[in-house]
Amino acid sequence: MKRESSPNYLNGVPELLVLRLLKEREMYGYELVQAIRDATGEAIVLGEGVIYPMLHLLEREGALQSRRQTVAGRSRIYYTLTPAGEKRLTQAATAWTRIHDAVTSVLGVSARG
Amino acid sequence: MKRESSPNYLNGVPELLVLRLLKEREMYGYELVQAIRDATGEAIVLGEGVIYPMLHLLEREGALQSRRQTVAGRSRIYYTLTPAGEKRLTQAATAWTRIHDAVTSVLGVSARG
DNA sequence: TGCTATACCTATCGCAAAGAGGTATATACC
DNA sequence: GGTATATACCTCTTTGCGATAGGTATAGCA
To answer: Which bases on strand C have an atom closer than 7 Å to a protein beta carbon?
Structure first.
């Protein structure tokens, strides 16, 4: 059975974060790992084994565009959002909000724990 | 590699919902499926193939307790939270809040659109 | 008679995320 | 000079949740 859309509402948080950060400014993989760790106060720590494959996938699917640059003897690959990537971000953010609202409403049902 | 705790912060939403609903009152599996669909306005629709195995797992792990009752010729298995289950709910809710806050803060970084 | 709703169940699949590696250069420390 | 740490890239494999797709059985209605 082939899946057309519906990106599995319950996960996809790493992708959402990456897309959102790249909307602000271009970044490279190693930088994203630290940015996510720092921005979330270590609530979310994603390994390079999560980030790099995701960047490659997103680029293959046309959501990202990359350029290679050497800085201080180090080769970095900077990624930016394409228009398709912005659209994908919008959809991911919407899906996240929907789930968040749903969960929050259930959690708040007439009780405080 | 054996996992001790850390329930994979990014998912676990179905478990969180089930625990939360069972804290309110005892329910049976089929009822939970509909309760989740209704309470979330169909934002989250979990199949029976998700709910039943989860109930069995949670019971096996001591988070739930069940009793069997026949109503109108139909055999239902009602589940309630044990003290361990309440603790598990608290932890799941805390984890969810942490992730939610982290994601929200990243999403809100100086941009609208 | 047959369809729908209720109520339980398990077995398999897909895929995102986690983990564990591996390469290479720059820099700081002994 | 040697060694450890930080930077920066990479991929392979495992895991486990969630999704799908079945299956059983009874009650009730048309």
So the answer is: 6-11, 14-22, 25-27
